[in-house]
Structures are given as structure tokens and as C-alpha cells.
Amino acid sequence: MGQYISRAATSLAFSAAALLLAAYGMREVQAQQINSAEPATPALLSPPAVMPAQQADGIFARFYLGELSKPLANLLNEHVPVLSSSAEAQIPTPGLLRKLQRDIAEILATEGYFSAQVEFDKSSDGTRIDIKVDPSARTTIKSVSINFTGELQTAAEGGDTEAIKRRDSLMKEWSLEQAQAFRQDDWSHAKTMLMEKLRAYRYAGATLVDSRANIDADSHAATLEIDVDSGAAFVIGDLLVTGLERYPLWLIDRFHPPKKGEPYSSTRLVEFQRALQNSAYFSTVAFNIDTDSTKADALPIEVSLVERQTRDLGFGTGVSSSTGLRTEVSYRDRNFLDRVWDLRSAVRLEQKRQLSYADVYLPPNDNNRLDSFGVLFDRSNLAGLLKTRSALGVKRSITNGMVEQRLGLNYTQEKVVQNENTSSETERHSRALVASVGWTWRDVDDVFSPRRGQRAQLDFAVSDKALISDQRFVRMVGKYQYWLPVAARDGLLFRTEFGKVFSTSVDGIPEDYLFRTGGSTSVRGYAYQSLGVANGQATTGGRIMAASSLEYVHWRTDTLGVAAFVDAGDAARNWGEFKVKQGLGIGARIKTPAGPIALDLAYGKQVKRFRLDFSIAIAF
Question: 14, 111, 357, 493: least buried by Cβ within 10 Å?
């Protein structure tokens, strides 16, 4: 589309600026034309007509930029080759000086300085040339006119309330305001955003017909005019799916696709694409649409899929500061029993814990509900307790925007002894059938490595003696995290959590429903789950728990950072026995696709010891 800049007095050839800035690696400036009767020569001063004898004899000189505002100086230093720190001395011929004048003026014009004055001041020995730049007044935006045509304008003129609201919203959200400084980048960005917003809903084939930035260099004012054709209003047609071989076509309907007859919405398509991409079944999801106006009444959506392998067998090894060395074998079947059920299972052997589990996830239904069931066997020897637990359960997760709701029913059997040499008389057995409900609210900029945002979680669990349980209790747990960006890279993390079990006695309550804390994800500087109720040489679970943490992370590069933190918390029988334990320290952070790896050296104030903790510091 033609794009024009005009002025009454002095004119600039913006097409030359486009070529120049492209050569320097800047964003291409679209070709623009200036309407003027004057010659197209920048208003610049004093290019020498005749070179001094010493220059003609081949004496070289270096160029230096004179006093100028820091943003403009940085711009010129970056994009004028003779001003770079590595530039070699050059022979200052009249042709070179005229080119520098032209280049500098055209670069400054992209920032709204259309009347720049450029002079050269040569040193007495001819080896140094200072470039004096007077950018003059900056051009500001005088007015903006956005002219719509197409079906949007037709509907608005016909009194369609939705069309009127949409048109007015687009004009209101236009990013360039009156009296704002004119910049070429801002002008291009504003037009791009206008078109993206228009195409996002209904008008997928909208086009930018024309745009004009009329510049009056004498009054330093810009008048902006834009002509936009919305085109036809598009409606969703058929989904044309390719790439399905292992999984049935009906599986696609479980991920809430846009329905035939819905108004076209890029947001709906992105949500559908994200749901497919994040599922267990597809590794790549790509959409293609043809915005030919003849297809507006039933726009076909082409969905190209790359399926994941049906079965995976994995082996892994690692180490944890909480449970020691680890080795693991995992098996996954995404078409378990030929029902497109997702089986996830593993056997994990650690120095202080041995775990095996098998969970089956059913395909989601079309209202974002995900059902699952599973079984688990767990044996651990932590904080003086040898615990053996078996459990089975069912769970339903429902996601609605930023809120996830969980409903569950679990049956647990547990045996606990204080150490392996204790006689059978000291064993404690417990069982519980527990119904649970919980909510998680997330509003973060990155799920795996947040820098800005919040996360809140609240869970309730209920058990009763009347339903094959050894004790009646209600368990409540709340967690909150807040991320605050600091400066360009750094971040501050605040975390707090609390828990309470309401019951007349802890007898018969499985340890898994009581509280112990301490370790890399709670109070650093103390051994994993070592904070709780002291019982001889062991630590058992209490009915209350609270912990908080404040952490500052400074990222020295995009992937490496250092952290300083303060933790505090405890678990106890009751608030009367609750004693805050404190830990403080420093650590290293390494960003990975799975989240930041944290390596922390913490000092436990109450135990008067240093402890090394490491973990993957993901938020959820």
C-alpha cells in the first residue's frame, strides 16, 4: 500500500531512508513520498565544496559525534558505520560528507526530527572531524483519522449495536495519541496492532488499504490518515483434520473445538490449538485458513497434526537433597486398553524412599473436565519414621479460565514405625476414606518460570469414622505465591502457606494428612520433613503448619542467576507449641525448559547448621 509523508516547506525522500536503514539492520522503513515543489535536499549545513590540500594528499581522519541527547547519540552510534568504536579512519571527501549528512538526517527523521542540521568541524591537523547535530524541534501528532469500509462499516451505519461498539473500540484502542511524538516504529506498530485486533474476530480478511503520515516540517506537526477495509464477516465452517493415524477422530471433539456456525475468532482457535498441543496425544498442531471472501459464510479450518508415539518407556537417574540418589523406570501408554486412556506409571527407587504408581487419565470432555483414577505404593524412611502406605483414588479436574477445581475420593492404608528395630508393639496402623475439594487460581506470565503474577490454592479434605476410617477429621491447606519483577532481569518471590487439621485426636489419621515441613521447597536449612512433633528420635506430623519465604533472584544472564532468601515456619500439635524456625541463605538458579534448577546453601538458625538444598524450583 502507498504510504505518504508530505510537508509544505522542506521535503525528505523516505524511500532512500528505507534502503539506508535496511542496510544498517534497522527495521525497514516503508517507502514514503513527500509532496513539495522544493528540491528533495535535506536542510543541512556546510558540506565543503573543495577539499583542503592535506585531505587531497590522502590524510585520514576519524569522525566523532558532538554533544547530543543520549537516545539520539546511541541511535547514530549504532547505525552510522563511521561512528562505531571499531570504525577505521577515512578520507573525508566531499562525497563522503554529503552522504553522512544525508544518512544522519534520514535516521533522525525516523524519530520525528525532520529539520535536522548537520555540520562538520575539522581539527587543525586534519585527523579529527567532529559532527555537530542540531535535531531541531520534534514532530508531534496533530490528528489521527481512521476510515473504515467493508462489512463492519456497513453494519455500523445500519445501526448494528455490536458493529458500532467494535468500530468505536478499535478507534479508542489506537495507540498513537494527539500531541505524542511521531516515530516511524510507533506508526508502523500502531497500524499492525489495529489490523491484528480487527482480524482477531469476524473480519479475518481485513486489509490496510492506505496509510498516510502528512508531515509539516515548518510547524513540526503530523497528520495521520488510515484507510481500512474490514472485508466480509467470517463464520466458522468445517474442521479439515489431517495427520490422524493412531487416535480416533472423535478425540478432537474432546478438546472443545470451535463449532460450525460460530463467528470466526482467532482467540478461540489459539485456545483450541493450545489444548491439543498440551494434551498427551499430539506433539505438533498447526492451523491454516484461507481468508478468501467467497468462503466467509463457512470458513474451513485446516488442522494439521503430528501424533505422539502411543507407548513410551523411560529410564532416569538423579539425586535429591531430600531423598538421596534416585533411579526410575517409567512406562506410558496413551491408548491403554484401546480406549485412548492415558496410562502413566513408574517405579522410583531412592535411598530414603521407594515409590510405584499407576494413574489412568481419561480423554477430557468438551467442557474442560478431566477424570482420572490410580493406585500408589509408597515406602519412606524420613526424619526417624519408617512409613509404608498404599492408596487408590479417583479425581476430577475442571478448568475454567484461570481457575482449576479438583474433586477427589481417596482410600489410604498406612503403617508407621519409629525405626526398623522397633518391636511390632510400637507400630501404628491407620486407614482413611477421604473426600476432597480444591481450587487453584493462576495469573502468571509463564507457567514454568514465572516472573510476574500470582498463584493461590485452597484445599479441603474430609474423613469420617462412619465410612471405613479410623478417625474423623477435616483438613484445610492454603498456599499463596506472588512474583514481582524488579529492574530489567531481577525478580522478587513471596510465598506463604498454612494448614490445619480439625480433629479430637491424631490417632488413626494417616501421616500423609498431618503436617511436617522443612527442606528445599519449604523451610531451607532444615532436613526434609524434619520440622513437626518431636517423638523420641523421630518427627511425626502435627495438626498445624505455617511457613513463609521471601526470595530475591538476580539473573546475570538469560539462564544463570543468583538468589538470596529468608524462610520461616514450623509444624506442631497446636499453636501453643508452634515455634518459628528460621533459615536464610544464598543460591544459584539455572533456567531449563522444566523450570529453574535451584541450588541453595541455607543456614538453619535454630539448629545452627548449614545445609545444601537443591530442587527444580517450579511454581506448580
Answer: 357
- The Cα–Cα gap between 291 and 462 comes to 55
Phi-psi group of 112: left, alpha or beta (phi > 0 → left; psi -120 to 50 → alpha; rest → beta) = left
**How is 356-392 classified by DSSP, letter by letter?**
EEEEEEPPP-TTSEEEEEEEEEEEEEETTEEEEEEEE
Contact criterion met (CB below 8 Å) for 455 and 444: yes
CB count, 10 Å around CB of 505? 10
Determine how β-strand 544-555 pairs with β-strand 560-572: antiparallel
CB 463 within 8 A of CB 426: no
For the segment 195-213, what is each residue's pLDDT rounded down to a tens digit? 999 999 999 999 999 999 9
Please state, in angstroms and rounded to a whole number, the distance separating the CA atoms of residues 160 and 64.
61
Beta strands in 365-488 (DSSP E): 369-382, 385-400, 403-417, 428-444, 453-463, 473-486
Selection from 447, 577, 458, 580 nearest residue 506 by Cα: 577
Backbone phi and psi for residue 106, each to the nearest 5 degrees, phi listed first: -70, -35
Distance CA 71, CA 77 (A): 10
Strands in 117-122's sheet, in edge-to-edge order, are 62-65, 128-134, 117-122
The H or E element spanning position 570 is strand 560-572
For the chain, percent of residues with pLDDT exceeding 90: 72
pLDDT band per the 50, 70, 90 thresholds, residue 419 = low
Looking at residue 98, its amino acid is R
CA 132 to chain centre: 44
- Walk across the sheet containing 140-149 and list its strands: 3-4, 207-216, 221-229, 140-149
Residue 455 in grid coordinates: 498463584
Region of poorest pLDDT, from 36-50, 220-234, 349-363, 502-516: 36-50
Do 225 and 248 form a contact (C-beta atoms < 8 A)?
Answer: no
d(CA 132, CA 120): 6
**DSSP tag of 188:** H
Check the CA dihedral 348-353-358-359 and report its sign. negative
According to DSSP, the residues that pair with 3 across neighbouring strands are 211
141-174: pLDDT as tens digits = 999 999 999 999 999 999 999 999 999 999 999 9
Strand partners, 65: 131
Cα distance between residue 297 and residue 233, in whole Å:
8
The interaxial angle of helices 70-79 and 94-109, nearest 10 deg, is 130
* Spatial separation of the C-alpha atoms in residues 553 and 548, rounded to whole Å: 17
Q: 384-421 burial, b for 16+ CB within 10 Å, e for fewer?
A: bbbbbbbbebebebbeeeeebebebebbbebebbbeee
Helix (H) or strand (E) holding 78: helix 70-79
List the grid coordinates of 267.
Answer: 482467540
* Amino acid 595: pLDDT: 67
By the 8 A CB rule, do 395 and 373 touch? yes
Angle ∠(100,105,111) on CA atoms, nearest 5? 135
Cα dihedral sign for 118, 123, 124, 127?
A: negative
- pTM, to two decimals: 0.71
| Count of beta carbons in the 10 Å neighbourhood of residue 71 | 9
